[in-house]
Structure formats: structure tokens, C-alpha cells
């Protein structure tokens, strides 16, 4: 892309040896070597080469761009996996890569687990809460940590709003060194300890060995959604109808890294549908029977949700901030409380037209762009002789706000 010789990016193991013979030759020929202090100390940097200690990544890349001779960049493990290769290419540099074993592969190997069914998230320069949400929702997650987003912070996040979901953490510190330590603990235990850098965190459910798939990463979007009401246990028809769930899901947009609240969850059908997209979900209802029913529906669909038995809006103050909120039960005070937590989307389902104005006003007061629709569905029903009629479904008013 630049016409200059490609930059050689070398993954460094703990022993400091370049992983491939040709990489050792590139290192010996380099006139500039860029890397963290520990990497520069570990590898045989030639005496004629200038050294640039990598602190600010942008400054390091600028040094490479300005250098006229052969340059080498040192990185941990596999630099093409959540590593510096992407940044170098984004800055217009050609690269050749000599990868070592990635820290994620080494961490799973340390406990004898396969990881082709794992999800990997990075806390480097990203919101810690999204990594924690992925760990809440998914059964096997590796987290690439960062200063201020390490095992203690992940453990503290997981220890909040974890009712009904069990997670264990594996913290792999200083992998490949003489001081390597692999510790299994609870999130609560992780939150109270100090951990050595560098480290990788694995967050695991009780059952972690999924059936082998055919692709990686795995498909996260379910093959069907807006499932029929018969797919859920419910009480006396008290369930969001499939047509309502279809449109609600379109406006909620649940996905991996998101936290969705289902307020007034009832049977939990919306909560379960969001969890099937990989989102973490907190389902709240004041009715103990409905809370138990929501938990059973989640288990039947192979997902985990966090069920809170409490009345809204009072219970919402103690919950972690959501990315999207579905309000299936509660008055304008509940809508206002949910809207005040900064979610990108709030969706409200109402059975009575006279409640629509208050819901819209609450969303507008929180600076949302507000829309809505009346859903009047007619479902095909068979008649004698092969004829078809339309069977009316009770109308529902769906109000949404986006920001």
C-alpha cells in the first residue's frame, strides 16, 4: 500500500524467541524495534537498532511510519487477534506477521478446555460494562483485560444483578513465564484481590462444552424469533403476542454486549427472545409466580436471564444501566424511571389507548425521539370446507423512543 518494505510484526512468547525462523532474521536486520518495555527486554534486539518503548500506541505507529529502514513491532501472542495489526493497516502500513500462541488459546489450554465455542471480548479501550454483559449472557467467554478493566473489575460487575445465574472465573496471570498462575474463583472473590499483569480472564457457566459447530464465531442471530405463544408457559393468555414481540425486538435491537431490561416481564417471553440474540437480560416482576415462570421459560429455551422479584419503578434504581428497555407492565412513573437511565431504546406495550399519551410524554421528557403504532392483527383460522377467516387478536399499542 505504501511502496515501502512491510513492517514486521512479531508475536512474543514469554521466552522471547521469535516464533518463526524468518521472523528472527527480520529482527536481526531491523534498524527500528518498537515494543513494550517487557518485550524489548525479552527479545534479542540487535545493538545497531533504535528502540522505541511503546506507551502511546499512536506515537509508536508514527515512529514506524517516519522510519526509513526495516522496522519490527513486538506484540504479545497473536498480534492479528485483537492486536496491533489492525491499527497498523488502518494507518496505511503494509505488514507481515509472525504470530505466537494467543493469550486466549494459552488460557484455555491451561485448564484443558477447547475454545472453538467460546466468545472473545476485549476490554482494551472499550466499555467494561459491555464485556461484563457478554459474560452475564454467554456460557464461555474470554476477556482480554486492560488497566482499570481487569479481573477485579469484571468480578465486581458480575457480582451485581446475578440472581439465578452462576458463573466461575478463571484468571490466567503471566502466562508462559516462571511466575505463571492460573486461579479459579467466584466473581465475588475476584473482586477483592489484586492480580498481576498481563492476564486473561475466562468466565464460564456450569456447562461449558457445547456441541461442535461448523463455523467460528458461532451464529448469534436465532433462526426464528417472535415465537408463537405456545412456545412459552404462560398464565391465562398473559403473554406478549408474537406480532407485538416482533416489532418490539426490531426497536430494542438486542445483541451481544447489551443489557436489556424487561420490566413487568410476566411470562418472560420478551426477555427470553432478547437473550436468544445474545443479550444479557434482567427481567423484573412483582409476581412471584410470574418470576418463576419466566425462569422456567428461559431454561426451556436454553438461555439465562436475571430475574428480579420486585415492583417497578422502585426496583429499577438498583439495577445496572440498560442499553434497551421493554416495559410490559407499569404506569407512566415506570416509563419515566426507565427512560431516565440513558438507554438507547425504550419500548412500551400498552393495552389501553388512554395510557399512550402519558407514555409518549415521559419519553419526550427524557429527550427521546418518539414513535408508536397500534397493532391490530388478524390471524388465519380454518373454516369448514377449506375456507379461511381472520381471527382478531386483541389490539396492543406499542410506543417507542430512540436516542
UniProtKB/TrEMBL annotation:
Pathway: Cofactor biosynthesis; adenosylcobalamin biosynthesis. GO terms for biological process: cobalamin biosynthetic process; methylation. Signal peptide: none annotated. GO terms for molecular function: protein methyltransferase activity. InterPro entries: 4pyrrol_Mease, 4pyrrol_Methylase_sf, 4pyrrole_Mease_sub1, 4pyrrole_Mease_sub2, CbiE, Cbl_synth_CobL, Cobalamin_biosynth_MTase, Methyltransf_25. Pfam families: Methyltransf_25 (PF13649), TP_methylase (PF00590). CDD domains: Precorrin-6Y-MT (cd11644). It comes from the Bacteria. Residues 260-315 form the Methyltransferase domain. Residues 23-189 form the Tetrapyrrole methylase domain. This is Precorrin-6y C5,15-methyltransferase subunit CbiE. Keywords: Cobalamin biosynthesis, Methyltransferase, S-adenosyl-L-methionine, Transferase.
